[in-house]
Amino acid sequence: MINLRNVCLFLFPTLGGLLACCGGMGKGDVPKTGETVQKAAVATPSFNADSAYRYVEEQVAFGPRTPDSDAHHACGDWLVAQLEAFGAVVTEQCDKVTAFDGKQLPMRNIIGAFQPDNRKRILLCAHWDCRPWADNDPDKKNHHTPVDGANDGASGVGVLLEVARQIQQTQPSIGVDIIFFDVEDYGVPQFLPEVDSEGSWCLGSQYWASSPHVPDYNARFGILLDMVGGKDATFFYEGFSKHYAPAIADKVWEKAHQSGFGQYFPKQAGGYVTDDHLPINRIARIPCIDIIPMMVDCELSSFGDTWHTVNDNMEHIDRNTLKAVGQTVLEVIYSEK
Ligand code: AHN
Ligand code: ZN
């Protein structure tokens, strides 16, 4: 599908000009006097939600990608191979990080760079690890069961893999870095209420923001995707995003509305969420927003009823939401000059 709004516009004042347009202007053609040629950004490709859905499914098929599990290792290798197959220059950041419980966890941030030499860049990110505990499950006996992370983890990564595939087919005017952060979801579980949870989330992004994969790394802005596959998700403005990156939030929500996905993106304030965009804003000092659901009518969590439960599985992934978010992100990428 061609998005007419973003197709290169040739504005001709005369019928002759119009005919020239229909005949097609050759490469070296010079517009006649009085004709205006407006160079537009690259036309936005169409985000394929079936493809994104498959990428979500493939991650979930490894099993829960909890830190240091076999599924985690295998899925990490697969993510690297996927990004490389899409033509990205891949860098891995591997190190140990210390969890709230004193455990030393192996961390593996995976970064795919498109047009690495382009100085005009944007950053897209999602976490790829799974939570080891379904501690928000209504049934207490599930609290120590790891989650499938179909929405919480795999959905954001799945959307970004499809974005990567589209970038390979249609190069945008800017460079794009896709970062899959590790160890986001090892925050203090609810069954340990006495432990201070501040700083226990987002260990991979804290690490990257303190030592980016490229010295003096910079990007115009960042977009974090977190839980972008739930049915009828509503993405209100997340509080820290509006605080640190108001212009980016406005740009993204505007693109969503222009693309026909306004129902997913109410232009209203939501709550503040500690997430991977915080270290990016506060430590790396790159304005970064978070696209994260805030559900008005959910009983178990404002992130949705499957959040940190054993129901965060493929049954609750909706292609329409993946499409709304993925197409919006593509519109943003391809409108950058
Ligand atoms: C807190 O619950 C403090 N932050 C949510 C971050 C998160 C967990 N995103 C996905 N899972
Ligand atoms: Zn989570």
Which geometry do the CA atoms define? globular
- Percent in helix: 25-40%
Q: Largest beta sheet, briefly? A: 6 strands, mixed
User: How many distinct helices?
Assistant: 9
Q: Spell out the helices and strands N to C.
A: EHEHHEEEHEHEHHHEH
What do the pLDDT scores average to? 91
What is the radius of gyration? 21 Å
Uncertain runs with pLDDT below 50, 5 residues or more? 1-29
Ligands and ions found: N-[2-(1H-imidazol-4-yl)ethyl]acetamide, zinc ion
Count every beta strand, where a strand is a DSSP E run of 2 or more residues. 8
Distance between the termini: 22 Å
Biggest sheet strand line-up: 3-4-6-5-7-8
Strand content: 5-15%
Class from helix and strand fractions: alpha/beta
